[in-house]
Amino acid sequence: MTEIERNNFEDLKLMLQNFDEDYDIDMIKKAFEICVAAHEGQKRISGEDYYYHPFNVAKIVITLGMDSESVVASLLHDVVEDTQLTLDDIRRQFGDEVALLVDGVTKIGKLNFSTKEQQQAESLRKMLIAMGKDIRVIIIKLADRLHNMRTIDAMRPQKQRDISVETLEIYAPIAHRLGIRPVKEELEDLAIKHLDPIAYGEIEELLKHRKNHREQILNEIKNRIEERLRETMPNATLSFQGRVKSIHGIYRKMYAQGRTFDEIYDIYAIRIITDTVADCYNILGLMHDMFRPIPNRFKDYISTPKPNMYQSLHTTVISRAGIPFEIQIRTFEMHHTAEFGIAAHWKYKEGITKNDNRMNERLEWIRQIIDTQDATNDASDIIRTIKVDLAEEDVFAVTPKGDVINLPVGATIVDFAFAIHSAVGTRMSGAKVDGKIVPINHEVKTGEVIEILTTNAAGHGPSRDWLNIAVTSSAKAKIRSWFKKEKRPENIATGKSEYEKELRRNNINFNEEELEDYTAELAKKYRFANSEEFYAAIGYGGILLSKILPRIKDDYNKKNAENKPVSVASQTIRSKSSEGVIVEGIDNCLIKLSKCCNPLPGDDIIGFITRGHGVSIHKRDCNNVPVNIQDDDEPDRWIAAHWNSIKSETFTSTLKAVAIDRDGILIDVMNALNNMRVPIHSISARQTKDGNCIIIMTISAESVEHLRSIIARIEKVPKIFNVERINQ
Q1: What DSSP assignment string belongs to 76-135?
Q2: For 441-493, how does the pLDDT look when each residue is reduced to its tens digit (9 = 90+)?
Q3: What integer pLDDT is reported at residue 186 of this predicted model?
Q4: Catalytic (active site) residue 661
Q5: Is 381 a catalytic residue?
Q6: What single DSSP character describes residue 167?
Q7: Which listed residue (11, 48, 81, 153) is catalytic?
Q8: What's the whole-model pTM score?
Q9: Could you say which of 5, 82, 226, 448 is catalytic?
């Protein structure tokens, strides 16, 4: 090793000794030396030696309190993929346990948002399966992602945005569910810094601007609290901390919920840590005696812990100076869990057996997500599950027997019923909330007592509409499962009817024999035994027609092109690759899309032979195209054209959105487009006299179908009531 490498290992060794005397220093040193040697000559994009990355990942893993095997696996997590070293080499030198961890991290290391949706879902599924086998795999992967985010500035801007979206949608929610707060908050802050740097900078400035004034007041308050508690509870062990809310946490409330900085009451918090639960509640009473509590701002996570094991009392109060602030009260054990999550209860370090029931319960959500994905062929479901089921905010409702049911924000009565038990959900006939009958689409709120009314009537079961009412993937999977088992003939009939109706709506006209053959072929492509299984899957919601329709259209267009008789006039066909258009009967000419109607793939088009500028392509319903070509003065200059269905192209299109004016609407639109990975060429907004605003955006779309999905997504942004395509 060089002098620098020796110094780096000494730093690592010092960290190990400070955190835990039980680390196997010799094994970790051996892994460090192999890491340096294996990555010799390799450089990161930033220009630094590659081994710095696994070295820093190992340091993060140490700060999380993980064991020797985890540190060794962190140092070696890239060697199998990027060097000559094999998994067998690692197994021979470090044993099966380290090899299992390295293999798990390597398998999920290729997760990439730019891949096809099915590949992405499969990568996520591998990650969850690896987590189910050994949770240390994902803790190492989170450390890996955190160091990559810390050094992301060396990457090109688009790559930064792609990785940041992936971090926000996948890794931060998993870190939250595992209860690893520092990792979760830093991942979110780094992601939002690259996705919305302007907003990030504004919040940073607001925090800096008010830091000194607020810190002075909070220090005074903290001193008053400490003096009062030491006087009232002289025998209690107490610790006091200040806490500032993460930038991403403030960002979500300012831009997603439309609040101002001053309307966020928990930006600053004072944390009181003590010995026992009884002391926590005693301190809460004293705090409400010292300060005026804000109504409806008290949360008891001690009696009702969060799914990620977090426990604490939260109350928001107002100081004499009129400044609202949050007080968090917890025990030292609860504080350790709040900081390190599942790593604080590490079953291998503590010598707990792998069959420990408490640990298995904490990891039950992983199995539920995998089961959900198995229940449907819609690859995007697993992504949706991560976003919804692992959301940061939760609600807690209670059954009449006193059982607490934890659900994500926005969950409905349907989700509540299926969370109790599948049988309760399928037999539900209605519900009461706090003794009053409510519709089943009622959104569950914390503290509500919910009674599910059931029936034993023969033939009773869930409605297909419940799939649109349910929010959690668990409830949706159970509904689909019921229809799959109980209503097979009905599913086949419904699925076939919807399938044929959708084909007619899109002008896809097969004759009876062709339709039968094509459907059988399509069913085989989607791994169904026969057409009936395919229809049944459509019927119970296991496969969405909207997802497979583009493929059907493409197959139909290709089939038509193959069977179309070629006339003498159109034997020579050329397509302008930059436009993706085929013009019949003309060889090697310039093709351009007209700006008067801005046609997109999927539009019915026609060509016009210009003088000296090639062929201009118009939408068939463009105002400049005669309804009857023969009535035109020069009908021979109009020529048949169609889109090249083989090659996928992107086209610019301009959209106009009309909305009720509100703070943050432009950022919400940009986030919606960014989440769909839609390139934005320009975007602007202006107010109108009637209190509305108009947003004009120029974007890239792949086809009319793609553009429709973009418009549908923008229409879901709160306060937007109309989106349309315009010609500019």
Answers
A1: TTTHHHHSS--HHHHHHHH-HHHHHHHHHHHHHTT--TTS-HHHHHHHHHHHHHHHHH-T
A2: 898 887 788 999 988 876 678 887 888 888 887 788 788 778 777 777 877 88
A3: 92
A4: no
A5: no
A6: I
A7: 81
A8: 0.57
A9: 82
